[in-house]
Amino acid sequence: MRRAFITGISGQDGSYLAEFLLGKDYEVHGLVRRFDTSPPYHLKHLLTDSAAANRLFLYQGDIEEGALLRHHLIKSKSEEVYHLAGKTQVGLSYEQVEITCQTNAMGTLKLLEIVRHLQHPVRLFYASSSEIFGCPDIMPQDEQTPYRPVTPYGCAKAFATQMVSVYRRSFGMYACSGILYNHESPRRGKHFVTQKICRAAAAISEGQQQELRLGSLAVQRDWGDARDYIRGMWQVLQHPRPEDFVFATGELHSVEEVLEIAFATVNLDWRNYVHQDPKLLRPDEPTQSVGNPAKARRLLGWKCSSTFQQLIREMTLSACRSSHGQ
Prior knowledge:
11 helices; 16% strand; seven-stranded parallel sheet; Rossmann fold; 13 strands; UDP-galactose 4-epimerase, domain 1; alpha/beta
């Protein structure tokens, strides 16, 4: 039985990846933040499924606890490591610059050192971000686009992505980065703009919320489906050679488009409920952030399975069900 270790297994990507790997008969091990009494929400259905639970093992800890993480990796004997853990909110990185860099940059470096010295061969995937490109001159961006991060989060991710490349070249490790553009799902955190909009549309339609305040509505992003992106992560580690890949849709959509689809799903006009708030504008917003996934399509056979419209509609309907307590 193949074994995989996932840092950040309780998040959006980690939980979907755990499901995906269990479906391929993997034994899955994962690092979760310490919790009191209840298991991580996105993993509850797996832990109550006897067939899945027998192949799913969770370890409490933090990516910065090197000795503990080394112990978990040795114990699990995992051949594949998916590093998804870290601070994920770009806006919050301005308020937590040191913590963001310590976790996303140095935490990744610690993991690389641990994996380098393991006695058994390991293939490592690192979840990088389109934020490493910042405000690029080239559109769309691919694996050769220069790094020009403009946010603390992007700087930390750029450092970690470079170190993955250094360890691959210098130490012969099978270490790869997936440069992931924005990817969403019903499991997306509530602080991310797509989920914030979808949840607000559902709540307003039920009379549970009166308005929604947002920053710029003109901001555009390359938004894809998280379930497609975790499939790409797995495909990267099945490739004969360790290489970096961009995962993106190649399409740009604006925040206003998200509003249009989400509110239309619940038969509302967003203009009656949405107000722009200057306090929510970011100091330096990346522009022209759209990826070119040609390499992943060509070498991995990767492709997107759903449209932007289908994704936002699904997220809104899921938020409606949640508001009903289902």
